[in-house]
Structures are given as C-alpha cells and as structure tokens.
Design a protein that fits this description.
One of its GO terms (molecular function) is proline-tRNA ligase activity. This protein is of the alpha+beta class. It has 2 domains: 42-333, Bira Bifunctional Protein, Domain 2 (BirA Bifunctional Protein, domain 2, 2-Layer Sandwich); 347-447, Rossmann fold, CATH 3.40.50. The chain contains 14 helices and 23 strands. It has helices spanning 21-28, 44-63, 77-83, 85-88, 111-121, 167-187, 242-252, 265-268, 295-298, 321-331, 359-374, 388-398, 408-412, 431-447; strands at 32-36, 39-42, 67-68, 74-76, 94-97, 103-106, 130-139, 154-164, 192-196, 207-213, 219-224, 257-259, 276-291, 301-303, 309-311, 313-320, 333-334, 337-338, 349-353, 379-382, 402-406, 416-420, 426-429. Strand 17 and strand 18 form a beta hairpin. The longest helix has 21 residues, at 167-187. Bound molecules: adenosine-5'-triphosphate (ATP) and magnesium ion. Adenosine-5'-triphosphate (ATP) binds at residues 109, 140, 142, 151-152, 155, 157, 283-286, 318, 320, 322-323.
Length: 453
C-alpha cells in the first residue's frame, strides 16, 4: 500500500476520552472511531489487524478440526425462551421488536442457536464428535463500556461449540480447545495464561479463562510465577489424541493460576512466597464444559450405539477477537507508539523515502516495494512529500515491526537502513540484503498459516 493513497487519519494530540494506553494508541493511530458508547467503526488500519487476528483464529480452529459456519447477529426470542435464558439474561441483552411485533434480540452469545442447528440436522452418534464455530459480532449492553475495544457493547467474538456423545469425549474437546488457544495466542505474540475460573451456577472445574497479564486488566489474578515459564512453542500435536491433549492441559494447569472468583488463600499460601504473584489480567478467552445444560431442555439428542436417544454433551469456547487488539497493544508498546508482533502486524514493513521526488530514491523505493510484494510481504510505502521526522513519527506510532529508510546519501553507496521498531537498532544493508533479511524473518511466520475453508 502507498500511504499517499491510503486512509490513515492519525491524531497528533492525545484524545482526552482514552484512559488506557491501548485505547489512546488505537485512536491516535487512526484504527478506530467511536460511533456510540462501546460501538466502533474499524478504520482501515484497525480493520487490517482485526482481519489478521481473525485469520489466525480461523487457522488454529481448523487445525484442531473445528468447522466454521456463520450464524446471524439477530436471533428469535423464542429460541431463548426454550432454554429459559430469555428472562434470565437481564439488561445486557438488547431486545428488539420487528414490524410484526415479534421479539428479536441481538445475540450476546449463540448456545441456543447452535443447539437448534444441531438438533435439526444431527440424530446419530455416528456424526459425532462435532465442533462448530463462527466469528461474529455480538452485542452486550454493558453497563460501563470503556477502554475502547476492550469492553465494547458491540464486539467480535469467536465462539465455538462442541457436541459429543459422552462427558469423556466432551472433555477431550475441552482439552483440544485449550491446546488450540495456546497456539492461537502465541502466534499473536501474547502470553495468555489459562486460569481456573468460576463455573457459574452449574459449577464444576471445567472452565478456564485465558488471561494476558497487564496492569490495566479488569480481572484480579493469583498465580505461581513458574506458570509464566511455560510456552507451547512449535511442538507438533495430534488433536485427535486424547493423551496428547490431556498432557498439555495437565502441564499448563499444573501451577496455581486462578481468577479472584476461584482464588483459595489456603492453597495459595502453600506456594513458596517468592513465587506468589497477585496481578491484573485481561480476559481474552474462556473455555467451558457444561454437559447437557442446553441439549436437554432443547431436545438435542442422538441415537447412541445401544439404540437409545441421549442428550449430547456440550461445551462453549470463546475468544475475544476485537478485545485482543487492545490486549496486544497493552503488552506491546512504548512512548512512541504501538509495536506490533510480527504475526499480527497490519503491514510487514514500512518504507520511508527521505527525499520524495528524487529520481534515485523514488526508483529505489519502488523496486524495494515491488520486490517485497513479490515475496509475499505486505509493505506500507510512505511516499508522501513530508519531512523525515514526521514520517518516522507516523511509522513509530502505527508500530510496524520493521522499517526500511531510503535516502540519497546511503543510496550513493547502495545502502538503505533496516530498523527494528522494538530495539530501535538499525543496520546498513543493500536493498537486496534488506529484502532478504525480512524474507527470512517472515518465512517462519507465514509457514504457520494453514489452509482454511
Ligand atoms: P467479561 O467477564 O470480560 O465481561 P465474559 O466472561 O462475560 O467477559 P465470555 O462470555 O466468556 O465473556 O466471552 C468470551 C470472550 O469474549 C471473553 O473472554 C472476552 O475476551 C470477550 N468479551 C466479552 N465481553 C466483551 C466485551 N464487552 N467487549 C469485548 N470483548 C468481550
Ligand atoms: Mg468469560
């Protein structure tokens, strides 16, 4: 993309309404615009990152064998009356009447609808296991929308639902989700720690929230510092293997890590004092096994191997796709702006032309731009007639992890500068070497992409 043709409305001043750094930087970098409390337009740069995050979520869900579909945002109230949640859900649910006075709602989640799809189409245990998911906008009329996309009213969520014959099978689905989530967040450059959470009214141990540690997080968390040493890394896993998925769950839940709802002082006190941590975290996902809570009242049954009809065992598993932008920025920024992890960056590299209109710098920039694109990278070329300082400030603010600076003096020696946004370190390289270097950096990241439906 050439910046002269892009739409990047950056702000010079800090917006007053933003209380936390991610919200401030998203506004300043021209990523979002608030349209009403907790409701945002996604401007091109924000939209691009949102799509990158969505793509990673799709790839990792499908790698785990989960099947994408798309359900609507508006739902009929009748479905929710069947589960009993239409009255229970309270004021967070946005209720709407159509012209025929029929009750609709803007979906805050999709357990009822997916259960309806399942019961209408599946009737034999032979069609199990099955996990369906979608990435769709949700609406929750939060009492206090704040912190930008972190707590919106309209927000994008991946929600997946597993259908299994037995509790044992459903717990494998639970573990499979845990593994896929670990991979998902790591690809985004995030450490999200699975923490034992509150099972709500139906209780049980089978729910974990994934938390990114950050001072601005809304959840209070308690953990053993050893948990932060664990990484999933590039290990291969067979998602069909009950043992392999179980082993990952055990490893990642082997240390104390809980949200305040499940925190137990007595157990916590047994951890050596120097490893005990109390901190704040941002909830970026949650997995949940809830058995037959919806399948029973809604009649989602299958004929089992013995010929009897039984309600299926289900769970639901969510990732806060739009909230992740905020969480990633909270974890990756400095005084100058955002520092995108390579896996989610809107553009892989910025090209700064120090002397726009100069025949040699212009043609060198064009050549680099084209070569990067030929190699599958997505560069942002600042081809505006602006001062160097202003160009650097914009690049730093929007946080591209790499920058190539092209000026007449360097070019005289066939050199450009390759700068690492995070460390600030620069290297003088020939244009070819710079492209080569970037190609090496991004190849392993591109290799993580799996084919998606
Ligand atoms: P919270 O406790 O933060 O209100 P939740 O537990 O009600 O969230 P879930 O139903 O578990 O949310 O939804 C799955 C994921 O969707 C959450 O882990 C979170 O990342 C994201 N999410 C939930 N509410 C919001 C919101 N208002 N704005 C943005 N993302 C949200
Ligand atoms: Mg939750």
């Amino acid at each position: 993309m050439r910046l002269s043709r892009y739409f990047l409305p950056v702000l010079k001043e800090d917006p007053k309404e933003a209380q936390i750094v991610s919200h401030r930087l998203m506004l300043r970098a021209g990523m979002i615009k608030q349209q009403a409390a907790g409701i945002y337009s996604w401007l091109p740069l924000g939209y691009k990152v949102l799509k990158r995050i969505e793509q990673i979520v799709h790839e990792e869900q499908q790698r785990a064998g989960h099947v994408p579909l798309l359900m609507p945002t508006l739902q009929s109230a009748d479905l929710w009356r069947e589960s009993g949640r239409y009255d229970d859900y309270g004021e967070e649910m946005l209720r709407i009447k159509d012209r025929h006075k029929r009750d609709l709602l803007y979906g805050p989640t999709n357990e009822e609808m997916i259960t309806d799809i399942f019961r209408s189409n599946v009737s034999s245990y032979k069609d199990l296991p099955l996990t369906l998911y979608h990435i769709q906008w949700k609406f929750r009329d939060e009492i206090r929308p704040r912190f930008g996309v972190m707590r919106g009213r309209e927000f994008l969520m991946k929600d997946g639902y597993n259908f299994d014959l037995t509790k044992e099978d459903a717990l494998h689905a639970y573990n499979r989700h845990l593994v896929s989530y670990l991979r998902t967040y790591e690809r985004m450059g995030l450490q999200a720690i699975p923490m034992r959470a509150d099972g709500g009214p139906i209780g049980g141990d089978y729910t974990h929230e994934f938390l990114v540690l950050a001072e601005t997080g809304e959840s209070e968390v308690f953990y053993d510092s050893q948990i932060t040493d664990l990484t999933f890394g590039d290990r291969q896993i067979n998602y069909d293997s009950v043992e392999e998925c179980q082993a990952v769950l055990e490893e990642f839940t082997s240390r104390y890590a809980r949200t305040d709802e499940t925190h137990d002082e007595a157990v916590f006190a047994q951890i050596p004092e120097e490893r005990r941590r109390t901190a704040r975290g941002i909830e970026v996902g949650q997995i949940f096994y809830f058995g037959t809570k919806y399948s029973e009242p809604m009649g989602a049954t299958v004929v089992g191997p013995d010929g009897n009809r039984v309600p299926v065992h289900m769970g639901s598993h969510g990732i806060g796709v739009s909230r992740l932008l905020g969480a990633i920025i909270e974890a990756n920024h400095d005084d100058k702006g955002i520092i995108w992890p390579e896996g989610v960056t809107p553009f892989h590299v910025g090209i700064v032309n120090l002397k726009q209109g100069d025949v040699s710098t212009d043609s060198a920039c064009e050549a680099i731009y084209n070569e990067l694109r030929t190699r599958g990278m997505d560069p942002l070329y600042d081809d505006r007639d602006e001062r160097a300082g202003a160009k650097f400030a914009t690049m730093d603010l929007i946080g591209l992890p790499w920058r190539i600076t092209v000026g007449p003096r360097g070019l005289a020696n066939n050199k450009v500068e390759l700068t690492d946004r995070r460390s600030g370190e620069s290297q003088e390289l020939s244009p070819q070497e710079a492209v080569e270097r970037l190609s090496k950096i991004y190849q392993p990241i591109f290799a993580l992409s799996a084919p998606t439906a």
